[in-house]
Amino acid sequence: MASASQVEEDLATAVAFMQLAIQQAKIAMDSLEVPVGCVIVEDGKVIASGRNRTTETRNATRHAEMEAIDVLLEQWQRTGISVAQVAEKFSNCILYVTCEPCIMCAAALSILGIKKVYYGCANDKFGGCGSILSLHSGSSEHQFSDEGSQRKGFTCTGGILASEAISLLRSFYEQGNPNAPKPHRQPVHQPGN
Ligand SMILES: [Zn+2]
Fold first, then answer.
1. Phi/psi at 138 (5° precision)
2. How far is the centre of ligand 1, averaged over its atoms, from the C-alpha of 189 (Å)?
3. Which terms under GO biological process does the entry name (predicted)?
4. What is the number of other CB atoms lying within 10 angstroms of the CB of residue 176?
5. What is the rounded distance in angstroms from the CA atom of residue 127 to the CA atom of residue 188?
6. CA 84 to centroid of chain Cα atoms
């Protein structure tokens, strides 16, 4: 069992890396994207970062996690490492993301076999790490039938700098998402027209 000081140290580390993820979310915000950001850490070092780019890319799957994962895959593929080595590398990686991974990202992370995920606020609509589905638990409940896509469980801890993550999302939606469909106004019938 971890000692109290060890737990405190882990939490301080998680907060420090989550601050970097928050920075990524702020860059997304500045680019008028839904402000979600992440970093991937290996051996205490950030090896990739990502931010939501769904608007810029006009691709609804370009979530922060997918961006960061692709940075790594590209890097690793360039060095010519094998699929097994890629899996080995992911199994040593920790992801820090400002909002709970959605179902799509949580499934991807479990297929890749990431070691651990820390997230900020919960994702009540699409969360794949406890809110809607629990894809991190690695149970057979949602097991993919494709043998090449065996999912592995990963540890998941939420609530790291959650209020910062929420306030970014809130101010994004309050300032009005310029890319959201415009509300349809009812035609006003004026007397005499
Ligand atoms: Zn996602």
1. 70, 15
2. 44
3. tRNA wobble adenosine to inosine editing
4. 8
5. 40
6. 24
Residue 192 pLDDT > 50:
no
Determine contact, residues 168/123, Cβ cutoff 8 Å: no
Strands 45-51 and 116-121: unpaired
- The span from the CA of 141 to the CA of 167, in Å, is 34
Encoded amino acid at 128, one letter: G
pTM: 0.85
Active site residues: 65
Share of the chain above pLDDT 70, in %: 84
Q: How far, in Å, CA of 158 to CA of 127, rounded?
A: 11
Q: Ligand 1 mean position to 32 CA, how many Å?
A: 17
User: Comparing C-alpha atoms, which of 104, 113, 110 is closest to residue 84?
Assistant: 113
Residues 102-115 as b or e (16 or more Cβ within 10 Å = b): bbbbbbbbbbbbbb
Contact 129, 100 (CB under 8 A): yes
**Three-state SS annotation for 47-86:** EEEEECCHHHHCCCCCCHHHHHHHHHHHHHHHCCCCHHHH
Tens digit of each residue's pLDDT (9 = 90 or more) over 132-186? 999 999 754 445 545 455 778 999 999 999 999 999 999 999 886 666 555 554 4
Q: How does pLDDT run across 87-108, given as a tens digit for each residue? A: 999 999 999 999 999 999 999 9
